[in-house]
Amino acid sequence: GNNSLLTAASPLLHDLMFDVHKKVNDPYRDETVFDRCMIHYKDTDYNKTHKIYSLGAGSDYFAFYKFTGIPSIDMSYRQSDLDQIYNTSYYPQYHTFHDTIFWMEHFVDKDYKVHLTVARVGLLYLLKLADNPLIPFTMQRYVNALNR
Questions:
Q1: pLDDT tens digits along 76-134
Q2: Within its chain, how far is the Cα of 85 from the centroid?
Q3: pTM to 2 decimals?
Q4: Which tens digit of pLDDT belongs to each residue from 55-68?
Q5: Topology of domain 4-140, CATH
Q6: b/e for 107-133, b at 16 or more Cβ within 10 A?
Q7: CA gap 43, 144 in Å, rounded
Q8: Which of 90, 114, 118, 148 would you call most buried, defined as having the most Cβ atoms within 10 angstroms of its Cβ?
Q9: Of residues 99, 10, 19, 21, the one with CA closest to residue 61
Q10: 67 burial class (0-12, 13-18, 19+ CB within 10 angstroms)?
Q11: d(Cα 75, Cα 61) in Å, to the nearest integer?
Q12: Helix axes 113-131, 14-23, angle to 10 degrees
């Protein structure tokens, strides 16, 4: 999908992610990634932020995050309105014979604007983690998550 960025991550990284999402423009609208996420994934617990989901067990980060405690991030662009209608989290071609570069270039992200946006978001996450003298973890969000 190509509607808005959906993220899941360790609570330690949430504030860093919000900061990055406010700095990267949405690929198709005159607003930031953060603004777009606020429309589709508004967090009812924290009124001024969008929802960042908990990491599950269904991906390659599982061993790093669940067994060794390495903070991780999972992100993808989703067609959020269709996710709610069809109760799905992936595009219909995911992990099928039709999940090809042809499909991507002709039907999903013809000009690679969404791909470029995801790359910008990911690289800015890494830059902020690498360039700060102190690792920008937010311990209070981790405490709040543990207390839930």
A1: 887 655 555 555 556 667 778 888 899 889 888 889 999 999 999 999 999 999 999 99
A2: 20
A3: 0.85
A4: 888 788 888 888 88
A5: Aminopeptidase (3.40.630)
A6: ebbeeeebeebbebbeebbeebeeeee
A7: 14
A8: 114
A9: 10
A10: exposed
A11: 12
A12: 130
Pairing of strands 73-78, 4-9: antiparallel
**Residue 17: both structure tokens together:** 């992610």
Residue-by-residue DSSP string for the chain = --SEEEEEE-GGGHHHHHHHHHHSB-SSSSSBHHHHHHHHSB-SSSTTSB--BPP-SSSTTHIIIIIT----EEEEEE-HHHHHHHT-SS-TTTTSTT-SHHHIIIII-TT-HHHHHHHHHHHHHHHHHHH-SS----HHHHHHHHH-
Distances (CA, A) of 19 to 34, 81, 96, 125: 9, 25, 35, 9
- Structure tokens given for 32: 């930031």
Tokens standing for residue 80 = 């959020």
